[in-house]
Structures are given as structure tokens and as C-alpha cells.
Write a structure and sequence with these properties.
The protein is of the alpha/beta class. It has eight helices and seven strands. Helix 3 links the parallel strand 1 (38-41) and strand 2.
Length: 221
């Protein structure tokens, strides 16, 4: 998929609603403090980097392995030095360089997920948020089966037990799992249902894992 096509989806009515809903969930989970910095790992076109930036008063940086998408991100958000080409499995930053670290669905396309997670947590200092595609969701039935279609082709869809197992032994605490976007159509009915008790079901297409980052040596049992 081309960067412009990916970004164009966020400009459609369902894309605007879904993007805003997911960004709000991420921001609430991170609970940024004044002056804190943020790293967006696997930022792609920079959609979430740009969307989360207003809630962050410190430095905001996005990294992605795809140089073409980083060039596109710079064109949409020309803040000097905000976007860098980097591999999520070997981030070019010192330990604990950022207060907050986030990654939205990038892990779904990285074969060595554990290595990427270890790097993400290495450069984080206080809190992390990890957005994933949820295997137990209506969207998986629509777009994820048989290897996935369109932008979902080749994606890994996570389950809640899998996320807990993936994070086990890493330096985190107070792990919390959320889900949103129960009905991914984005129409009036989908939005109404998302705001109703049905929206609290653990079957949303967007699975968010968030928690505190510990100093090296401590870990989630």
C-alpha cells in the first residue's frame, strides 16, 4: 500500500472516527505529564504521531523503517527532526531516552515481536502503549482471515492471552488491556453502539496494551 492511500483512509468518515477513537484511547492510557517526551515506533505516515502531538508538551518523535513513508510523514508534518528512519528492533536512542513510547499496529508486521518490544521498552522511561489488531473481533472476520486483505495482508492478529504471554518477563508493571471499535463500519449505528454498553465488550478490533515501564531488573511475572 502507498503512503498516500493509507493516509487517505483517515480522511474518510469512518477513518476520521476510528483514528480519533483510537488516539483518544492511547492518550488516556499514557496520561502524559507536562514536558514529557514521546516516541512513536513504526509511525508510518505519522498519523498517530501528529494526532497525539497536541497532548504532549515535550519532544515528539516518529520512527519507521520505510524511508518513503518517513518522507511522506515529513511532508505532512514538517517539524524539524520529528521523523527518522529506524528499525524498531535496533532503535538509535539511549536507554530511557523518552518518557512515553507508543506503537500502533506496527508490531503486527514485525516477525521478531519480542525483540521489538524489548527495544521499545529499553528507550522508554515511564509508560508505554501498544496498539494491536485483535483476533477476536468482527474486523478479523471481515478483513483478517486467510492472510488478510488490503492493508491487513500479512498482519498478525493478537489475542489477549497472547499479549500477556508476549509481555511476560519484560520490565513492565500494571499491565492493562483495552479494546475499542466493536463495529468497524464507522456509521451512525456503529458510533452509537460504541458509546453504549456494547462498546465495553472485550471484542473491539483495536486491542491496546498499556502499562508502566520499570527499571531493568524488574518484570511482569
Amino acid at each position: 500500500m502507498e503512503a498516500a492511500d493509507y493516509e487517505r483512509w483517515y480522511e474518510t468518515p469512518p477513518g476520521r472516527w476510528i483514528g480519533a477513537r483510537e488516539a483518544a484511547l492511547i492518550a488516556a492510557a499514557l496520561a502524559p505529564r507536562p514536558g514529557e517526551s514521546l516516541l512513536d515506533v513504526g509511525c508510518g505516515t505519522g498519523y498517530f504521531t501528529r494526532t497525539l502531538a497536541p497532548a504532549i508538551t515535550g519532544q515528539v518523535t516518529g520512527v519507521d523503517l520505510n524511508a518513503d513513508w518517513i518522507r511522506y510523514a515529513r511532508g505532512r508534518d514538517p517539524v524539524p527532526g520529528r521523523y527518522l528512519v529506524a528499525d524498531a528492533r535496533a532503535l538509535p536512542f539511549a536507554d530511557r531516552a523518552f518518557d512515553l513510547v507508543v506503537s500502533v499496529t506496527a508490531l503486527c508486521f514485525i516477525p521478531d515481536q519480542r525483540a521489538a518490544l524489548a527495544e521499545l521498552l529499553r528507550v522508554g522511561r515511564r509508560r508505554f502503549a501498544l496498539g494491536l489488531l485483535h483476533r477476536h473481533s468482527l474486523l478479523w472476520w471481515q478483513q483478517g482471515r486467510g492472510g488478510g486483505r488490503g492493508g491487513y495482508a500479512g498482519a498478525h492478529w493478537h489475542t489477549r492471552p497472547e499479549v500477556r504471554a508476549l509481555l511476560r518477563g519484560l520490565p513492565i508493571a500494571d499491565l492493562r488491556l483495552y479494546s475499542a471499535i466493536q463495529f468497524p463500519g464507522g456509521g451512525r449505528c456503529a458510533r452509537w453502539l460504541e458509546a453504549s454498553p456494547a462498546g465495553a465488550l472485550p471484542t473491539g478490533a483495536f486491542l491496546l496494551a498499556a502499562g508502566d515501564i520499570l527499571r531493568t531488573g524488574s518484570s511482569l511475572p
